[in-house]
Design goal:
Length: 236
């Protein structure tokens, strides 16, 4: 009786949290509702006897993925009002796609039923006798469904590479390091030692500005380093 009541309680909170993830206007609130949904899903895994999946869901998804989503949403500061400007224009297409997906889900759920030999005890505790939940899950994934597991990992890797390629942009404004120019720089180009008496401060020296960086040397100009100083291998 207590297990049944806990199942319905966590299921109701899970469904409400999932609906709030989609309907919340604030993206930060959506991520927080997503974390709540993960916790309730983990509780359902515990009720079903899959404690390993419950801990993995809390540690990986709540502790890493959801927190990463939260940091990304807070740092990007996306203008969602501007993104929703074309909502009404794409509403018919979105409603059509949603109706098709809903019909497919209805067909799948309408034709699905429990197998006659699947008793309630087997559905709630699918771990074989004498084997831990983690060991049984490892045998199932890496023995019976090893090829499907590898294909899923390959699909995720392709999606990760595609996201990197699509978001990578060459920025002309970014400053790049010039190794040859750094090696050719002399101490006198950037550093100047001034004799300052004890307690003089800025009353004697004044405010000293940083030295201006020398202009880059063109190919057709003589190669010099600093002000009137010959470079390495040159004799002035």
């Amino acid at each position: 009786m207590i297990v049944t009541a806990a199942f319905y309680l966590f299921s109701a909170i899970l469904l409400g949290s999932a609906a709030a993830v989609v309907t919340s206007r604030n993206p930060v609130h959506s991520v927080l509702f997503l974390i709540l949904a993960f916790f309730n899903a983990a509780a359902l895994f515990l009720i079903a006897g899959a404690e390993f999946l419950a801990m993995i869901l809390v540690i990986v998804y709540v502790g890493a993925v959801a927190v990463l989503f939260l940091f990304v949403v807070m740092m990007l500061d996306v203008n969602f009002g501007q993104l929703r400007e074309g909502y009404q224009r794409y509403l018919p297409v979105g409603a059509t796609v949603g109706a098709v997906l809903f019909g497919e889900l209805a067909l799948v759920l309408g034709g699905w039923e429990f197998a006659p030999q699947a008793a309630s005890a087997l559905r709630l505790s699918s771990t074989p006798a004498g084997v831990s939940n983690t060991q049984a899950l490892g045998r199932l994934i890496y023995t019976d469904y090893i090829f499907l597991f590898q294909i899923a990992g390959l699909i995720l890797m392709v999606a990760m590479i595609g996201a990197i390629v699509l978001t990578h942009r060459e920025r002309a404004t970014s400053r790049r390091q010039n190794i040859a120019r750094q090696n050719a720089r002399q101490v006198s180009d950037t550093l100047e030692i001034m004799p300052v008496g004890f307690g003089a401060g800025t009353n004697v020296t004044g405010i000293i500005r940083p030295k201006r960086e020398p202009e880059p040397v063109l190919a057709d100009e003589p190669h010099t380093h600093g002000v009137g100083l010959p470079g390495p291998g040159e004799h002035g």
